[in-house]
Amino acid sequence: MKNLTADNRQNTRSMVQTAIFGAIIIIMAFTPFLGYIPLGFTRATIIHIPVILASLLLGPKKGAALGFLFGLTSFINNTMNPTITSFVFTPFYNLGEFEGGFGSVIICFLPRILVGVLPYYIYKLIKKIDKKSVSPWGLIIAGVTGSLVNTLLVMNLIFLFFRKAYAAANGVTVKAVYGFILSIIGMNGVPEAIVAGVLVFFIGRILMKRNIRERLGFINDFSD
Has UniProt tagged this entry with the keyword Transmembrane (predicted)? Predict the structure, then answer.
C-alpha cells in the first residue's frame, strides 16, 4: 500500500512537471517575438530549449510528448499567423500556387518530436565517458544536437517534399534552392544551435545536480 501511494505521488509529480514545461512552451510560442521570431522568409525559434531540458530531466517519452506540443504550436502559428512559406508547416494554408499537404504535417511534427528524444540519449552516451555527476560537455552537445536535429530535418524535409514551391516562394531557381536552404541553416540554424548549447549548459548544470533533481522530484539520474 505504501509503494502504491509513493507511485501515485511520483506519477502526479511527473504530470505536474510535464505540465509546467508544457506551459513554458505555450507561453513562449504565443508571446510575440519570444518563441517564434519572424524573419519574413522563415521563423527563428528558441522553443526547442525547454524541450531539450525536459528530455534530460523527464526522459525521452515525456520529451517526445513535449516535442509534439512544440510541433503543435508551430502548426497553429503557421495556420493562424502565416508567413510566405507557412505552407511547408501546415496543410491548411495556401498562397496562390503554394499549398501544403501531408508532407507539411511530417515537417511540422517529426523533427520537433525528435528534439525531445535525442538529447536524452546523447547525454546518456557521453555520461558513459564523462563520469562527472553533471557532464558539461554532455549538456552542451545535447543542446546543440537537439537544436540541429530540428533545423537539419526541417530544412531537408522541405527540400524533399516542397523544393519547387519553396524555390518559387523565395524567388530562387529549383537548382539553387538547396544552396538557399544551406544559407538558412548557416544564418539561423548554427546560431540557434550555439544558443541552445550555451543555455542548456548554464540551466542544465543547475537542474541536473543530484540534490536539485531530488528536491524537485526529477527521477532521471543516468547512473546506468
Answer: yes
Nearest residue to 206 (alpha-carbon basis) of 10, 56, 22 = 56
* 6 vs 19: CA distance, rounded Å: 20
Distance CA 18, CA 14 (A): 6
Sequence spans of domains, the chain = 2-216
pTM of the model: 0.90
pLDDT at 1 (0 to 100): 52
What are the cell numbers at 205?
548544470
* 107 in Cβ contact with 154 (< 8 Å): yes
Mean pLDDT of the chain: 88
Grid cell, residue 209, equals 545536480
Q: How many CA atoms lie within 13 A of 23 on its CB side?
A: 6
State the architecture of 2-216 in CATH terms.
Orthogonal Bundle (1.10)
Over 50: is that where the pLDDT of 93 sits?
A: yes
Asked whether residue 16 carries a pLDDT value surpassing 80, the answer given is yes
The answer to whether 107 and 157 have CB atoms below 8 angstroms apart is yes
Residue 37's DSSP bridge partners are 44
User: Residue length, the chain?
Assistant: 224
Residue type present at position 20: I
Q: Are 51 and 28 in contact (CB under 8 A)?
A: no
- Gap between the Cα atoms of 210 and 221, Å rounded: 7
